[in-house]
From TrEMBL:
One of its GO terms (cellular component) is fungal-type vacuole. This is Carboxypeptidase. One of its GO terms (molecular function) is serine-type carboxypeptidase activity. Its EC number is 3.4.16.-.
Amino acid sequence: MFLQLLPVVAFFALLLLRPSSAQFPPAVAYSHLLKSPLNSNITISYKTPPPGTCTTVFANQTQYTGYIGIPPNTLAPIQQNYSINTFFWFVEARVDPATAPLTIWINGGPGSSSMIGLFEENGPCEVVQMADGSYGTQSRMWGWDRSSNMLYIDQPAQVGFSYDSLTNASYDLLEQTFTYPPAAVPAGRPAYSFLNGTFSSNNAWATANTTEIAAHAVWHFLQGFLSAFPQYNPGTRPNTTQVQPAGIHLFAESYGGKYGPVFANLFQDQNLRRSNGSLPRNSTLEIKLESLGIINGLVDDLVQDYYGATFPYNNTYGIQAISQTDELNSIFAFRSTGGCSDKILACRAAINKTDPAGEGDVDATNGVCNAAVAACQMVSQAYYYTGRNAYDIRQTNPQPFPPAAYQEYLNTAAVQQAIGARVNYTESSTAVYDAFTSTGDTIRGGQIEELAALLNAGVRVALIYGDADYICNWQGGQAVSAAIAALAAAYTPFLSRAGYADIQVNGSYVGGAVRQYGNLSFARIYDAGHTVPAYQPETAFQVFSRVILGTDISTGQPIDLRAFASSGAANSTHTNKAPAASAAPTCWIRSIASTCTDAQKAMILAGAGAVINGVLYGRAADYVAPSGTVLAGVPGSLPTSSSSSAAGPAPSRAPSSSTDGAPPTGVYVATGARVGAGPGGAAALGAGVVIAALLALR
């Protein structure tokens, strides 16, 4: 099951060769090279990207990019005979970064880069095309830096800008395969489709192969990051020398439904080991998790896969993507003797007996779990034959949204030098995907129990699902929330006492429905696909902010979570309107498999058409230049406009109005009741207020 975003396309073997294009990353100079004060074997190399690299609302929001290096055998007793060089991108909050929360963002895959989240979803900036056709960045109104310091991590090793060992190779954009050492372009192929550069080794043995192992690497990463940047450690506050446990928020998407619960529980386990003396207190930091958010996550196949059978036929968009016969056959594939659910249980029984630590090193058990993966793929087979998109049931393939312009931007020499990148950027790693599938990691389970344990430990758990996604659909997510509540003793009234309340996004729009009981919440986001913040940025931001603040997710009002239950209907019955036709896709050459039609792939293979600024056109004359008024930053240069001075001090962090009248800081708190119909048939709202100083609600 490809969760984000790993299509592997196999076409033709290499034929006669000719010279290929080269795009090796430029030499990098870091402003800081240091060793972790907690572990001298862990190195930290970072720099501050030049202004404009990722344009923020306020020019004086500090950013850091770089690598934390973890040498072989650091994860012992886990076998780790490879280096881990984890890339990170940190951005300060817009308001009071010294006291703002710290949120870690992780994308899924397994093998997908968190630069997806930064540039396509919730980061402080987004990539736009400028008048000359090149790409730059603009600040994002609803970036999550509006409420929190943000840390984006490419993990595990070999994902995105992260790597094990630097290796020169050729990358075939059409087949999404690597050739070591670098080679020449296959005969008849255009040079732009076959690139020489620097990448990871692409060896599946040189990365994590289970979520448990990935969790240990991230824990060591955070030990290095928090020790190197104590000013952003929520446990270290101004005017005090006392270090408290670091209170952080972890948000993960897609396969992050596996990552999030396992990572969070490892943090809890390591804290316990520090307290009982199993880990040295003077050379480790306690990582105290305050909230865990999962966005359209695959949490447990045993709970969710059933809805992969039913959702294509029975969804709130009125789209019957498959026939009822296909639906019944898919249900049979899930429930039948020897089918998906039986094989999941067999896998988990084998793990409990032979691999309880989840290290994926027992071949027989891996085989049992792999068989379960294969059986469960049959449940969704009928849907994939329809040609509809996995991440948005409203659309047909190829994927029309979100655009892949950021991949072009991140592969320019100026940007790579600005951020200190040592490898060329790839959105997804097939090596990591192969490593995880070799152990049947997706089927192994335990996440429901871990989420229940987090609730029992006082951690807020928020499940957030866009209702147009198929692959991790909201009906399955809703079932996960019920399963978690059933295992956490204090949360058994989750379904009986808490109803669905409207998510009041602003003074005129309801963006979804939420069931919230104490620290557990499930939110259905209307008209959003798999990557919720890309589709509904304002709704996603308001929900995120309310989760990390511990307020009413419906209104943003302060509440006592110990005694809170949302009021509303027992079921979320809102119906959506599907578009009359799918959006026209754009064929991005760095995302050929997911954004290009078969005809366009054939065109590339034949060397036909024209590629302009990373996009394939049937002919050069089809290209339409962007507006001459597009303003964007590039490394070393911020956007300018006729209304701003060319020089002068950086703007303060005081709230100010944006061009559309909305302030660029603060969260919305609804203070009135619903009063009528809003945009798109959603309910309009009464009065509300934007709390400009976020910490006023803390």
